[in-house]
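Usage example:
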Amino acid sequence: MLTLIVILPLAGFFANGLLGNRLGKPFVTIVGCGLPLLAFGIAIKSFLDLLAGGGAPIVETAFTWARIGGQSFDIAFWLDRLSGIMVLIVTGVGSLIHIYSTGYMKEDKSYARFFAYLNLFLFFMLLLVLGRSLLVLFVGWEGVGLASYLLIGFWFEEADNARAGKKAFVTNRVGDAGFLLGMFLLYWATGTLEMDKINAAFMGPTAPLVSASLVGILLFIGASGKSAQIPLHVWLPDAMAGPTPVSALIHAATMVTAGVYLVARMSGVYMHAAFASQVVAVIGLATAFFAATIAVTQYDIKKVLAYSTISQLGLMFLALGVGAYSVAIFHVYTHAFFKACLFLGAGSVIHALSGEQDVRKMGGLARKIPVTFVTFVVATAAIAGIPPLAGFFSKDEILWFAFSSSRGGSPVLWAVASATALLTSFYMFRLVWLTFFGKSRMDPKVEHHVHESPKSMTGVLAVLAALSVVGGFLSLPHFLEPMLPLPEVPESLHHLETPLLITSIVIAFAGLALAAFFFGNGAVRAARVREQFGALHRLLSGKYFIDELYERVLGRPLVWLSDRVFLRTGDRMLFDGTLHGLAGLARRTAGVLSRVQNGNLHLYAYLVIAGMAACLAWSFRHG
Amino acid sequence: MLLLLAMALFALGLMGVIIRRNLLVMLMCMELMLNGVNLSLVTFAQQTGTAAGAVLVFLIFVVAAAEIAIAIPIVLVLVRQRRTLDADAYTDLHG
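Running the assembly step on the lines above writes:
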């Protein structure tokens, strides 16, 4: 059953990859969307089985991968409440985005290749989520990295896109190194890679003889690569080079949350790693805040959403850091709906404007593409935390535990997180204003072509918007409580819950009001502020110049080292020099010897005689 | 005695191969060397009373016949091209 969920998208990959181009678009559409939907159906069935069983994990061993010593490494799938939620998100939102893609990618010449890659991604993501052992998870982890690379560089004819894919892959490798080390350490200490056993070992009476914080930090390095946290966040904004459905599926709803899932899954380790948890919380919060400030100044509609994703992921890590694992998963779940909706809405806008992504060349689109507009606004309200939409519930819980958790919550964390929430609300409504309200700033040629997207796209938008509205009413933390208990809250803080709740509502509306104030009326006030704080604006729109810093500190020295030391000194001088030297020696020697072979029969005869004479002489001497 | 004759035949052939430049003469001298060897083989066979030497002689006959059957046409083709029998004229196969 579980194996089938994983295998179906793989079958789709092979069918579309090998036969898609020959059998035409209808075949690709049916296979590409049908198999994920089927997987979704089976996932629901399995989830219901899980509930019927009272939440006892369903385990299924597909086969034994390797047997080394007495240890067997199984490809085993594990469905519990946590992975159940993730599987439903991955297959459910995944299927929706597949359906959307049939409209978005309709005109693309590599239609079959696109669906093959999407299915491949789904396969690896399900492997990641359902794997029982870290080993299977790691295979999925690398696999989604590969799929992400292939899809970011989907339009690889343009060098920039290919470069963005490469950047994502290389940045992820840095994180993976940490992840691998963490895995080695865990295996060395506990003798198993199965995550339930590792957690049990750490929760047991005698903790393994390894620093939980060290393991936690190493695993978090891996998570920060995949989930784009500081300092490995630089790849995600560039990853927007891929087609928009890819940004929605991989770089918003599912793959980037893999890091959050990993930390939540290994909660047994993190519960004993106070220091690592602190690091997670601080890095997460810093990422959330800085990414939000960058998002305020971006003009590319997808870049704004990308930084918003980084920021939201940061909030999830903040929740993980203060021990509220289930709350982080709650935010993963609501975020999947509204961020997918936002990205797909942005895709619909881009589609309508024949490829335009710059918000400075949009404006006044509300009447022209009403469905996109309405769904986009709903999702924006959800991410901004306006009650009673989905984002409000999850974000409010994060803020609450950042403030009150006995596992490292503090007013400082709450204050910065609230500032982030304010910024989130502000930049999202800024985006809405610039895109949909005000006067049109479009190119007349583009404006002439503006059209609402086909049903396959708007339908998906409507479904996701509806989920963004109602998704929050499902109390996920309560559902996950049996396996991921919430951190305790000191009694003295309970009375503050309602005031904080009201504050977070006020913050959400304040962001909306600020955006309306600055960007209403032709954005004149925003322009004035921009002029007044020119230096700050340059810093923010330059993304804190982190890419440039990496280029200076890492890129150039590496290029210099490769060029001067490895290429010129090592490769050309040492290796090529040695080999050319040897070849030259052989050639010169041969040049001398070849003079003997002058074609004169008599000389040969003399030489034969000389040789025979020498042989005879030698044999007489030694006879 | 016969061995001395064999040695003389061989030495004569060898000298011819080394000194003469006419291709046909060189070939004939090679035959001379082969026959010198044959003679010595037969003599040894007689002396030791075994048949091995005599058998070897027949082998050498066959080889010599085959060799000359190929060598003569090669020389003919060469001569047709260059109109000379001088071995020193054919140094095309130098290194």
